[in-house]
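Exercise 7b. Backbone tokens:
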């Protein structure tokens, strides 16, 4: 089922390819509606930039996590060269995996985005302190501001949701 985020009368909805509307506030018997209420798709409905940035970041983090968790020899050599233990490689790999998944779960999106931002800031600082060439460090440098933007957006959306529930 293809889903298309949209905003109708100030309310976030997700429209399926068949044209039925799934609102996160609907308490109908639709299983898909209940699932969507717990994802960040309704939050992304009003901000297409967030969606466009989150998709590639998720893919990149899932690929990076699989290389770390799979004990890719290049990753092991890289972490060892920076003086980090192999256990830290696995910790970062699992943190990237859970962070990438959490970007799509409304309750965990802010926490996951913050965690991935910390990982990227740490990676950037590691590359800076080791004077790594841009071909090694460029990905971390490019992804850091994008992840910080995603974090800011989820923080702002979480604040707005908290303000509306408090009223």
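Sequence design result:
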């Amino acid at each position: 089922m293809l889903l298309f985020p949209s905003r109708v009368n100030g309310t976030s909805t997700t429209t399926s390819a068949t044209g039925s509307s799934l609102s996160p506030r609907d308490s109908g018997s639709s299983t898909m509606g209940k699932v969507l209420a717990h994802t960040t798709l309704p939050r992304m409905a009003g901000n297409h930039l967030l969606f466009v940035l989150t998709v590639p970041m998720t893919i990149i983090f899932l690929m990076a996590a699989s290389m770390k968790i799979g004990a890719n020899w290049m990753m092991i050599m890289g972490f060892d060269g920076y003086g980090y233990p192999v256990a830290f490689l696995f910790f970062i790999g699992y943190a990237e995996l859970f962070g990438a998944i959490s970007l799509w779960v409304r309750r965990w999106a802010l926490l996951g985005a913050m965690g991935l931002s910390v990982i990227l800031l740490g990676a950037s600082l590691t590359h800076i302190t080791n004077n790594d060439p841009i071909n090694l460090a460029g990905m971390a440098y490019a992804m850091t501001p994008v992840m910080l933007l995603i974090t800011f957006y989820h923080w702002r959306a979480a604040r707005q949701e908290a303000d509306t529930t408090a009223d």
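Instructor comment: The helical segments are 31-36, 41-44, 48-69, 73-81, 86-102, 109-129, 134-166. The radius of gyration is 18 Å.
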